[in-house]
Amino acid sequence: MMEKEKLVKDIQRLPSIERNYRQFIELSQEGLWAVDVNKNTIFVNNAMADMLGYSSDEMIGKAMFQFIAEEERQTAEDAVKHQLGGIGERLESVLLRKDGSKIDVYVSASPMIDEKGAFEGAFAIITDITYRKKIESENERINDDNNNLIRELQGHKIGLEHTVELRTRQIKKNFEIQNIISSILAISLLPVSLEKQCKDILDIVMSIPWMQGQNKGSIFLSDDEKKLLRLIASHNFKDAQLSTCSTVPYGECLCGLAAIIKDIVFSTDSNADEHSIRYDDIMPHGHYCVPIVSADRLLGVINIYLSEGYKRNNEDEVFLKSIAGTIAGVVLRKETEDKIGQNYLIQSAINQILMVSLEPVSLKAQLQKVLDIISDVPWLLQKTTGCIFVVEDDPNVLVMKAQKGVSLDLYRACGHLPFGKCLCGRAAETGKTIFKTAIDDHHDITFENMHNHGHYCVPIISKDQVLGVINLYVPEGHTRTDLEDNFLSSVSSVLAGMIERKIADEKISHIANHDMLTGLPNRLLFSDRLNYEMRAMKRHGIQFALLYIDIDNFKEINEAVGHEAGDQILKEIARRLEGCIRETDTVARMGGDEFSIIASNLDTIADAEKIAEKIIALSNQPLETSKISFKTSMSIGISVYPSDAMDAVELLKNSELALYHSKKSGKNRYTFFNPEMDTMIHERRKLENELRQAIDNNELIVHYQPQIDIKNGRLIGAEALVRWQHPEKGLIPPFKFIPIAEETGLIIPLGERVLFNSCMQNSTWQKQGLPPITVAVNASLKQITKQYSFEDMLLQALYETELDPHHLEIEFTESFAMQNINATVRLLRKLNSMGVEVSIDDFGTGYSSLSYLKTLPFKKLKIDRSFIMEISSNQDDITIVKTIIDMAHNLRLKVIAEGVETIDQLEILRTLGCDEVQGYLFSKPVPADEFEQMLKEERIYYNGNGNGVKSSKDYAYL
Question: Measured between alpha carbons, how far is residue 949 from residues 896, 921, 937, 946 in Å?
Fold first, then answer.
């Protein structure tokens, strides 16, 4: 379930990433068009829709062929077939505008393939070539006219040799213009770099025979942010000129002037005042400086050198403007392709980071992988130095958790960085990205041999709280771009979710594996470590001891000093036990006043005795509480691996037997297990036989604990809890006999009896006309086996008791759900189909199952009492419970909290949006007749506004 919430949080962050991506797409001057496998339109950008005179919404969902001229549809069909084979396609076509007119276009299409290699559609870049086609058509017309004129002149044999010569020259010039335009258009479609395209175009222009040039020229592209022109291509430039003219500020020299006025600048010689840039060995020359412009946007300047004294010519200018227009198209197309490629890299990187966020590895390992992904984005970084900081225990200190290319000196200086110090500290303090092009006065931390560099310091923020900082080095003088800012902002958002989730995971993992009161490992973690120790010791042939510890007379102590002081005693004893063990040992709280120690890697049994003696001595030292000072003692049972047992269950059982003998022998001592300690086993077997008879003799009874709707305070349900009414020993609580029933298989007939009695009782109440309620019955893992059909038993109970299935709820634990996910899903679906509600019990104790909860069809989630105990005093518990409630509601699950004992706990749960509650604040589990009286009273237990109940004394059934 927690994994589901993690993914939901990440998905919630994606809209900002998608928004940035779509902004890049909409900046494209080219039309972008995507169709699905059925050739229906699934995406167009604004440029595409405008090209055809539609809105984007009008085109989405429409068939591709609706927008293609009829004579071109078969060609388009063939192109799609190529896409099916994974082959890209480039072709010219004719599209239909909304008004019925036609436009010529150039199509560059590529197949869209899913992760399994299957064809799922096609994506195309559409270029309007109507203008180019008109030029080609006009050239063809001129060519035809010229040919006709030649034939006419030759046919009449007019002796106008001079006229024919002039006309022939013009015809030749027209041919050359046509060939140049065609060649440039062909270059514009080549899959090469923009620099290469501009160089090839320039070389063609330099070959013009009728323009009395110097076979020399250049193409500049504009850097609008810095207001200068950058040389991208040159023809016959010497080194001195390449160096001098590599950049030209707007307004300076002839090319800079053309950039400012966005019109042709002509010069007959190089001595003009405007020719302000000079270089060595400059030769006399003239100039055409032609701006490259698109929709009033300056893209660059093409510069043609002329012979000195060359006269300005209108035909030259028309031709050069057409060349500049073609180059503008090349530049815009390249910009679009680059942006699409960059956006693909951004999305790919973000997707990789999201996948990393779901990997079951440490936060440090995740952050290192993220840093590697960022460093591999080719257009972002030219330096490979960077790091990621995270805020840990100290909320005002950044801790370096991942690094790349960081020297030892840098790590020592910046491993722990206070807020406000240096650039990263300032980014954390202000919550804003800090960019620097070089080392400056704000660089508080410097050291010997530090290289010049710039910085991106990007804060990682969630809900106005700084969680860390991304620190990336860039080359000195690096230019900041919106693309980089948007990408790093997206990465920061994903990292915020990753860090929050990992911190919550670690807290939940710690809670699931540690005792809430003492902080020691709990029984679950202890069991894992015990099994690990047995495997390790078996491999190396080394023995270890298991010490089972119980505080003598703790029940009396607890009653004497109260539960609060009793908790203080348990904490102090836990602290003392930790002081008795070695670094390789493990101490855990097993529950109540019981503890256990794994004393590993023992040379002799005497080593375990030393630990036990130390524990006995420390336990006899006075214990101080806020109310009283007194002494206590402990009893210890010790079993040794491998001499006393070869498996964990047997070893633990033998240590408990040894503890029992310590208790029986006077307490305040330790006892080693020996095989003669079988009396306890006989007692256990006796209790097993008595339990078997109790099931047959119907000695098992059901008590019911009310469940309250937190919004209106009404009793809406009950949890059925089994008790054993022993004829001699009285009422035996479930923890005394349920483990025996689980181990022996008696849980199956016992579970049938409890389920049948609960259904029968609820059916009886409803037949009496009492308010209908849902009774929740716990199901054991042992009841779900291949040899036993739990669902058939359930159907039989409903049939015999005539209970509406909607008034029955079955509770499963998380550990049950993890045993076999597929089988669990099948079972739960069967129960849902019957109309029986299914809930997950003790949520939070089965940490490993969180990622699977999204697949299990539960209807309700019960928060374990361990999360409720200190919710009124522990902010972490509030955070965990709120997270669980929000996650459950996102999955359309109701939430019930158990173990509610105080008004403060109830109020907090109401504020957090919990749906239902149960606990001693309302009632302990009571017999059926007492619960029936509650139903008859129809009492309002809580009015949902913090009023109505002042203390537990307000409840008649406590």
Answer: 19, 9, 16, 8
Q: Name which of 303, 60, 353 is nearest 198 in CA terms.
A: 303
Here the tokens at position 670 are 């330790």
Q: In angstroms, rounded to a whole number, what is the distance separating the alpha carbons of residues 631 and 408? A: 53
Both tokens of 469, joined, read 């900082």
817-869: pLDDT as tens digits: 655 567 778 888 888 889 999 988 877 665 444 555 667 788 898 988 888 98
DSSP state of 39: S
Q: How far apart are CA 233 and CA 223, in angstroms?
A: 15
Of the candidates 246, 499, 245, the one whose C-alpha atom is nearest the C-alpha of residue 364 is 499
Question: What are the backbone dihedrals phi and psi of residue 41, each rounded to the nearest 5 degrees, phi first?
Answer: -70, 130
Tokens read off for 172: 């030749």
* pLDDT, tens digit (0-9, with 9 covering 90-100), for 201-218: 888 888 776 666 678 899
DSSP β-ladder status, 774-778 and 730-732: unpaired
Q: Two tokens at 501?
A: 């989730």
pLDDT of the residue at 149: 61
345: nearest Cα among 484, 480, 461: 484
Task: Give me the phi and psi of 110, to 5 degrees please.
Answer: -140, 145
Confidence of residue 947 (pLDDT cuts 50, 70, 90): very low
Q: What pLDDT is recorded for position 655?
A: 92
For residue 530, the one-letter residue type is: L
Measured between alpha carbons, how far is 688 from 515 in angstroms, rounded to an integer?
30
Q: Which of 231, 226, 264 is nearest to 246 (CA)?
A: 231
Q: Is residue 589 within 8 Å of residue 574, measured between CB atoms?
A: yes
Of the CA atoms within 13 Å of residue 929, those in its CB half-sphere come to: 0
Share of the chain above pLDDT 70, in %: 85
Token representation of residue 577:
């036990």
The side-by-side arrangement of strands in the sheet containing 102-113 is: 41-44, 31-36, 119-128, 102-113, 89-96
Q: Note every long-range contact of 883-890, with CB atoms under 8 Å and residues 24 or more positions apart, other chains counting.
A: 883/2, 883/5, 883/504, 884/1, 884/843, 884/844, 885/912, 885/913, 885/914, 886/5, 886/913, 887/1, 887/2, 887/4, 887/5, 887/8, 888/1, 888/861, 889/913, 890/4, 890/5, 890/8
According to DSSP, the residues that pair with 472 across neighbouring strands are 386, 456
Quote the pLDDT of residue 898.
Answer: 93
Q: What is the DSSP string of 414-447?
A: HSEEETTSHHHHHHHHH-S-EEESS--TT-----
Cα 190 to the chain's mean position, in Å? 40
For 443, 458, 584, 838, the CA distances from 452, given in Å and listed in that order, are 11, 20, 48, 64
Which tens digit of pLDDT belongs to each residue from 452-473?
A: 888 899 999 988 899 999 999 8
pTM for the model: 0.42
- Tell me: pLDDT of 2 over 70: no
Q: Tell me which residue of 425, 491, 428 sits closest to 464, measured CA to CA.
A: 428
3-state SS class at 794: helix
CA distance 427 to 449: 25
Pairing of strands 416-418, 434-436: unpaired
Contact 136, 128 (CB under 8 A): no
Shortest CA distance to 41 belongs to which of 124, 117, 129, 97?
124
Residue 153: pLDDT band (50, 70, 90) is low
Contact (CB, 8 A) for 305 and 285:
yes
The answer to whether 217 and 196 have CB atoms below 8 angstroms apart is: no
